[in-house]
Design brief:
By secondary structure, this protein is an all-alpha fold. About 50% of the residues lie in helices and about 0% in strands. It contains 26 helices and 5 strands. Strand 1 (about 660), helix 24 and strand 2 (about 680) form a beta-alpha-beta unit.
């Protein structure tokens, strides 16, 4: 106990010391990567931004995280992060940047927290390097520059980690309780994803605390019970509220938060079961594009703010990228094929894996000589914590049926922690000429440089040969020189070690800047020269907010006179399929994207949101615009002013401006007007919210009169859509549809506007 008290006093004393001057530039780097130009993203992720707009209008919408101002349906995630975003929008005004700001600050906060966590045990230089590695992990700023949840989730889990470490140091049960309660708060951010750190929390507390097993079990059981209570607190309130007094729980099939948590946002992520409503069988994750998740639905690119030359748009790899051990790089949304080497495949490796070989060597060094029965040093105990975080999460992403690239931010803290702690530990072993352990440093540098060359090789047409060759050559040379100079102790050797660390961080730093350089994607954040495409393609050349959409397709509600491909979609530049458009799941269609099975729109590719694709994807010669803002909120995330004027003028007191099939069509109108727009089938159009009888009652009450319908997004509401078509008056498109490709757009492509008035 005296030892514990002395540690607490030491911590208080160290906190009073002056600021670490080396930390300042690291924080500034993180701030630049997370904050610079976030003000150019006008919509961010429109699905979530629309919810914030709605939540600003009433406490009812705020509490339930309603997608629309009318309180018809919620978004598909718990509300805590969106409560924070709404508060930010209330303070700073409703803007794209004000809903992004909390996540950007959380990204910076995670860098600081990792510094604090690593520094105390492994030393100040370990803390500095860990913080820098966290700041430069490409997926960290890519996610933090959006209004997606994951950056705030990681920050919250790191806060919980700090509380856990303090609980062990002070031997105070209260800190353990608040640490687990914080995981419960994180559950109300992204549900079961928050529980991925639980193995680390349990293992560390059992190993690190010097109390009886009886107390360990009792304390952990109590803390877990509190965590579960906090986790389900909001869900219990919502599920116990009468369905007619709250919005429908979006993306659930039974209007239940708990079903959403353990199904759609839970086990289905592992199994890849993303079948739509009404399906009688499980559909492979790689075949699903429309209903997989809120992030999936909005697969449009945020238009890049600087264009690529036409040379970059040429195929950089007519050959398919092979993963270690074989296998091509297909897989839904650029997440590769499940297997032990998945994190080293293209699409994932460049987001998170730059330092993984160095981390593996660091783990070997940190655990060298450890006996299973102990005793363990503080360094070994905390190393065990980070390992118990790293391994289960890495296994999940190696086998999961469905996830997005930006979920990989969950791996960033343990990788950065091991990079920092390992750099100091391996350097010490090297300097002390500690037998075989002294070879770990040059070995880690050599293998890490080799992996980085492998990661960059598919992007040779985008970044050139020089940086790839430079990293490879310098990595080999520095590793060999350090191996040769093992017996020497002088300043030159020290400089060589620093140079090696700089080389290993150079390309991750560049990759971390690509969302700023090329433009980011607020729906499917990812880093790299193709960071704006959202599906592993090249960056779009369009900078106009009005060109937003699926890689810049022609906007909805407008017709273009510039299409030259008549229902054909050109493959993204840089495609590895020799001119063939690679479909999710890896099938090619000879340059054409085929309609999904069951589509009634033969010969036309139906896009999420229901747009019928009659336009081509842009190539490197796409026209630019002088607009400095990006409305990158989702596929065709634009407002058709002509339609809006028509609906506003002809509204006779109806609650909803109009109804449409899904959230993609509705979100831009909610953001721009703040008026209720009904997404009849929820996020993807597949939620079983509405029945014909319910719709009749709403129309008779004068709640809705206009309906915008397009080819897809039906899911479980086909009866409703059929009834609408049979009992409505079609509004001539000349009254509401834009005819100029430069005009502002309507909800989702070449659909039809209907009017129904029941007596």
């Amino acid at each position: 106990m005296k030892h514990m008290n002395s540690e607490v006093k030491e911590e208080r004393t160290s906190n009073k010391k002056r600021i670490d001057l080396f930390l300042v530039p690291i924080v500034l780097i993180a701030a630049f990567l997370n904050l610079f130009k976030i003000w150019t993203d006008e919509y961010a992720n429109a699905y979530y931004t629309a919810a914030v707009k709605s939540m600003l209008q009433s406490f009812h919408n705020f509490f339930y995280a309603s997608f629309d101002p009318g309180g018809y349906v919620t978004i598909d995630k718990p509300p805590v992060v969106f409560w924070i975003q709404t508060i930010s929008a209330k303070i700073f005004g409703f803007h794209g940047w004000s809903v992004i700001l909390p996540q950007a600050l959380a990204g910076i906060g995670s860098v600081l927290l990792l510094y604090v966590l690593v520094k105390r045990t492994f030393g100040v230089w370990a803390g500095r390097f860990a913080a820098l590695a966290m700041a430069l992990t490409p997926i960290v700023p890519a996610v933090s520059r959006t209004n997606n949840i994951d950056s705030m989730l990681v920050f919250t889990l790191l806060v919980a980690t700090w509380m856990l470490f303090r609980a062990v140091r002070t031997a105070k049960f209260g800190w353990l309780l608040v640490a687990f309660a914080m995981i419960g708060v994180a559950f109300n951010m992204k549900m079961l994803q928050a529980y991925m750190v639980l193995p680390a929390f349990y293992v560390f507390y059992v190993v690190a605390t010097k109390i009886t097993w009886k107390k360990k079990i009792a304390f952990l059981t109590t803390a877990t019970a509190l965590m579960l209570a906090v986790s389900v607190s909001w869900a219990v309130v919502v599920d116990s509220t009468s369905a007619d007094k709250r919005p429908y729980m979006g993306s659930s099939q039974t209007n239940s938060v708990l079903e959403l948590a353990f199904g759609y946002n839970g086990i289905n992520r592992l199994t890849g079961n993303t079948s739509v409503t009404g399906s009688s069988h499980k559909q492979p994750a790689q075949a699903q594009q429309q209903t997989a998740s809120s992030e999936t639905k909005q697969t449009s690119n945020s238009n890049a703010e600087s264009s690529q030359s036409s040379n970059q748009s040429k195929s950089s790899s007519s050959k398919k990228m092979q993963a270690p051990g074989g296998g091509n790089q297909n897989g839904m949304f650029n997440t590769g094929n499940p297997g032990p080497f998945r994190l080293f495949q293209k699409g994932l490796s460049d987001q998170i894996s730059w330092l993984l070989p160095f981390v593996i060597f660091s783990i070997i060094g940190l655990f060298a000589g450890v006996k299973f029965k102990g005793p363990y040093t503080t360094k070994q105990k905390e190393s065990l914590f980070w390992l118990a975080w790293l391994l289960p999460v890495a296994v999940f992403f190696s086998i999961a049926g469905f996830f997005h690239q930006y979920y990989l931010i969950m791996l960033a803290p343990p990788i950065a922690a091991f990079a920092g702690a390992g750099a100091v530990a391996l350097w010490s072993m090297y300097k002390q000429r500690n037998g075989w352990k002294s070879w770990l440093l040059p070995g880690g540098i050599l293998t890490t440089a080799a992996l980085q060359v492998y990661i960059m090789s598919p992007y040779v047409s985008s970044i050139g040969v020089a940086p790839i060759a430079g990293v490879g050559a310098l990595g080999v040379i520095l590793a060999l020189v350090l191996a040769v100079r093992k017996e020497r102790k002088n300043a030159v050797t020290n400089y060589l070690g620093v140079a090696a660390m700089v080389v290993l961080l150079a390309m991750p730093a560049y990759w971390a800047m690509t969302p700023i350089i090329y433009g980011g994607n607020s729906m499917l954040p990812a880093a790299g020269p193709d960071s704006s495409s959202g599906m592993g393609g090249p960056p779009s050349t369009a900078t106009n907010s009005k060109q937003s959409g699926f890689n810049g397709m022609q906007p909805p509600g407008s017709s273009s006179g510039n299409s030259s491909s008549n229902n054909q979609m050109q493959p993204p530049s840089g495609s590895s399929n020799g001119g063939q458009m690679q479909m999710p799941g890896g099938s090619s269609n000879n340059g054409q994207m085929q309609p999904p099975s069951g589509s009634s729109n033969s010969g036309e590719m139906q896009m999420p949101g229901g747009s019928s694709n009659n336009s081509q994807m842009p190539n490197s010669s796409s026209s630019k615009s002088s607009s400095s803002k990006r409305k990158s909120g989702g596929m065709n995330a634009e407002v058709n002013k002509k339609l809006l004027n028509y609906l506003t003028k002809n509204n006779t007191g109806e609650k909803y401006l109009f109804a449409t099939t899904d959230s993609t069509s509705a979100a831009p109108y909610i953001i721009e007007t703040g008026k209720p727009v009904m997404a009849m089938g929820g996020f993807s159009g597949s939620d079983p919210i509405l029945t014909v009888s319910k719709l009749k009652a709403m129309i008779k009450k004068g709640e809705v009169k206009y309906f915008y319908l397009s080819g897809m997004g039906k899911g479980g509401q086909s009866d409703v859509i059929t009834w609408i078509k049979e009992n409505s008056k079609e509004i001539p498109s000349s009254k509401w549809q834009s005819t100029s490709s430069s005009s502002q757009q309507g909800p989702s492509g070449n659909g039809t506007l209907y009017e129904i008035t029941l007596k």
